[in-house]
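pls design
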């Protein structure tokens, strides 16, 4: 070998120096969490590259004949070539550093905190009943309500919601008293004048309408108590509609062997799953805010999830990670199962819609006509209850309207999300 090896050796030594500087730059950078793991992986890769370059330099050095003067015929050109390549290497290193810094800034980007202030009604309820609410909650009362509030993603504290229940019930009692007084002295009819004075005795009238004072507060309390449970069920159904497609998405992401916790970051960033997004944010908060590991966070969110299917998915992911199983294979099989259930529910909804269409035609069209004929015959013959024509018309209109509302509400509740 001749002195032609010298430029190559200089270039290799220059690269070794730049690599060593890069390792030193990364090693002295203060990082934490996922950033630290990423940087450690890069340092390990650079060390391996530095070791290989050292071996190559040693090999080239052995090829240089030491018995001849190390003088190149064109030293100036070689030095210029080495300087050019060195400048190119520095430029590439600078570009890598800038790219790395941008990545770190992107990961460290923090969104502005959003503070949700309670409404004036909630403030009033807390001022009046917070002491009583806290005492009841400490005694173990409203335990199911607390869990329903958490699963329904209702952004209100249990003590505040219990206080709202008490305040609303008190207001309904006041409303019930006014309603009782009104119906105690007035009648509401279908003919003009609609409101008339009561002609029967006060005691007899009181026996007919006293139930208003108890029914209105009781219905109000029960509705407020069970509302979080109804909201939880509604959110659970909507999550079940999104889950098959989100699981397919997660299966494709996990195939790249990415960190399992990053899968939920990616799903959230798509913004395609409105209700699942909230559950995944809660999962990430368990890790980032409370410091739990992924498996513990999955177990906890499985317990607090409003959807049974999502709970099974979280538990399955936790079990697969703990046992070292095939996560992409798990997602693929679970996606197929959820997609099959989704299609089955769609088919059941179509069949039930057809059945209720037949019932609707029978109840809303045929039944009112038959009932009106019966009432008219009873009026003409004088048998049974004798109602005026306006009263019969009002009964038919109200009856048909009520039946239509019931059918529409039922179909809306049964309808799966698109």
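designed seq:
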């Amino acid at each position: 070998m001749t002195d032609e090896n010298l430029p190559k050796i200089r270039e290799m030594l220059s690269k070794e120096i730049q690599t060593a500087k890069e390792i030193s730059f990364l090693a002295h950078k203060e990082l934490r969490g996922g950033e630290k793991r990423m940087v450690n992986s890069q340092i390990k890769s650079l060390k391996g590259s530095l070791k290989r370059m050292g071996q190559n330099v040693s090999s080239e050095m052995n090829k240089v004949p030491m018995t001849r003067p190390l003088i190149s015929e064109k030293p100036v050109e070689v030095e210029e070539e080495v300087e050019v390549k060195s400048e190119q290497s520095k430029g590439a290193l600078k570009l890598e550093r800038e790219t790395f810094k941008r990545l770190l800034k992107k990961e460290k980007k923090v969104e502005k905190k959003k503070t949700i202030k309670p409404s004036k009604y909630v403030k009033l309820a807390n001022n009046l009943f917070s002491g009583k609410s806290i005492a009841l909650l400490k005694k173990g009362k409203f335990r199911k309500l607390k869990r329903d509030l958490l699963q329904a993603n209702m952004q209100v504290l249990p003590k505040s919601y219990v206080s709202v229940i008490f305040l609303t019930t008190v207001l309904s009692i006041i409303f019930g008293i006014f309603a009782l007084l009104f119906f105690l002295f007035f009648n509401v009819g279908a003919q003009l004048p609609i409101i008339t004075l009561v002609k029967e005795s006060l005691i007899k009238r009181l026996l007919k309408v006293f139930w208003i004072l108890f029914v209105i507060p009781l219905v109000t309390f029960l509705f407020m108590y069970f509302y979080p449970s109804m909201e939880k069920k509604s959110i659970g159904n909507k999550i079940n509609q999104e889950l098959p497609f989100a699981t397919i998405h997660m299966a494709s992401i996990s195939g790249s062997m990415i960190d399992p916790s990053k899968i939920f970051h990616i799903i959230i960033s798509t913004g395609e799953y409105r209700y699942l997004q909230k559950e995944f944010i809660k999962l990430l908060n368990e890790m980032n805010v409370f410091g739990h590991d992924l498996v513990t966070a999955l177990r906890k969110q499985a317990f607090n999830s409003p959807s049974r299917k999502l709970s099974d998915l979280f538990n399955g992911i936790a079990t697969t990670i703990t046992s070292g199983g095939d996560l992409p294979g798990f997602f693929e099989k679970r996606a197929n199962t959820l997609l099959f259930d989704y299609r089955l529910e769609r088919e059941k909804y179509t069949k039930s819609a057809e059945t209720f269409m037949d019932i609707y035609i029978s109840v809303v069209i045929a039944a009112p006509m038959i009932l009106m004929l019966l009432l008219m015959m009873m009026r003409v013959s004088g048998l049974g209850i004798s109602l005026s024509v306006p009263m019969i018309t009002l009964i038919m209109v109200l009856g048909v309207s009520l039946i239509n509302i019931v059918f529409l509400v039922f179909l809306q509740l049964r309808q799966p999300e698109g």
